[in-house]
Structures are given as C-alpha cells and as structure tokens.
Design brief:
Elements lengths: L4 H17 L3 H6 L6 E6 L6 H4 L7 E6 L9 H13 L4 E7 L3 H6 L7 H5 L1 H9 L1 H5 L4 H21 L2 H8 L5 E8 L4 E4 L22
Parallel strand pairs: 1-2, 1-3, 3-4
Antiparallel strand pairs: 4-5
The structure holds cobalt (II) ion (CO).
Length: 213
C-alpha cells in the first residue's frame, strides 16, 4: 500500500518542531482538551478553521460539513454540540460560512447532483423565504454572498433552537452563538453581528421551558 510519503514527512517535521519549542507539548495536549470555542464550518479545503483564527490544537472544537449546515435532526451535529456545550463547556459556538461556497451555489441552481441535493435542500428553503430580498441584489455574486449570510444566520438559529443550548442557558451556563462569514478573496472574517446568548432573543415559538433539574 502506498503511504503518501510526503504527508508523513510533513508530520514528522511538524511534530519535531513542536517538541523543539516545548518538549512537553504533546504530553500536555494528551492530558485533555479545554477549548472555549466550537466551530461549525464548511468542509471546503480553503477554510482551515484553526489557521484562520490563529488557534492551536486544543483550543478549538471543530465540526465541518458541506455548506456549514446544522439540521436540527442531524445526529452528527447534535452530538458535537452536546459534547462541546455540555461536556467541554465551550463559551462560544461559531457558525462560519464563506463566500464562494459551492454548496450554497449548487442550492441556487437547478442542476441535479444526486444525494447531496438532499443535504443542501434547506438552503433552498432559506432562498425561498428570502426571495424578495435576494431579488434586490445587484448581480449574481451579490445574491450568492447574501444567501451565504442568510444560510449562516439560519444555522445560528438552528443551533439555538436545540434542547442542548436551551438547557445550557436554563442551567446558567453562558454560551453565545455567533454567525460569521469568511471572505476567501481577502482572508478576512466578517461578523454578522448575530450573537445570541439568551432565549429572549429567539422567536417565542422556539423557546422551551426547561424544568429545573
Ligand atoms: Co462551502
């Protein structure tokens, strides 16, 4: 079996550099993790979560999927959220989309791709709900960019609507959910200023009365 030698070479070089800087680096990391942040981002290879916000291993819990979606019934998403919020007590959950997202672009077109069309379906809902606003965008790129933002905002709400986040708030654990977009053309992040940290910021129909434990 081919072992992809260049990648193993890179790994050895990286590990030895880390050990040179701090001989106990890996022993310390192996003891456990205590990240303050959970990142929910797109799988796109051009958006490496840790790197673009300058965080080291151990500082960021990461979940990535195509088009940074957080469907409220997805076990994978719910599991990482529960692990982050309930077990690791992260203080911030960041949903980060990016302009030039091919997942969002595919959901704006009528091409048949197959299975992934089902995964991306909820972006079409967001598109349909905001059709009037999107129609005012001056061109196709602006429309795409705005749908990227609206998709992020929808996922921020999806995270907040979970029992996991609402239970955490009810128990007095302060956790804030943020919506950001990464601009690949400049390397810069944009904050959509949608920080949600209490049930009062949610539509009443999504609020859950969590009984005292
Ligand atoms: Co993407």
């Amino acid at each position: 079996m081919r072992r992809l030698k260049p990648l193993f070479d890179n790994n050895r070089e990286w590990a030895s550099k880390k050990k040179q800087q701090n001989p106990h680096y890996f022993q310390n990391l192996a003891k456990g993790q205590n990240p303050k942040y959970l990142w929910i981002g797109c799988s796109d290879s051009r958006v490496p979560a840790n790197e673009i916000i300058g965080l080291e291993p151990g500082e960021l819990l990461v979940h990535r999927n195509v088009a940074n979606l957080f469907p409220h019934t997805d076990l994978n998403c719910l599991s990482v959220l529960e692990f982050g919020v309930r077990m690791l007590k992260v203080e911030h959950v960041i949903v980060c989309g990016h302009y030039g997202c091919s997942g969002v672009q595919s959901a704006m077109e009528d091409h048949h791709l197959g299975l992934i069309d089902n995964w991306l379906r909820s972006i079409r809902d967001t598109h349909a709900q905001s059709k009037q606003e999107l129609a005012t965008c001056p061109d196709a790129k602006a429309k795409h960019n705005r749908l990227v933002e609206l998709n992020v905002l929808q996922q921020v709400y999806n995270v907040c609507h979970t029992t996991i986040v609402q239970e955490a708030w009810a128990e007095g654990h302060s956790v804030c959910i943020h919506g950001w977009v990464y601009d690949m053309e400049s390397g810069e992040l944009h904050d959509l200023k949608s920080c949600i940290s209490s049930p009062e910021q949610l539509e009443e129909v999504y609020r859950i009365q969590v009984p005292p434990s």
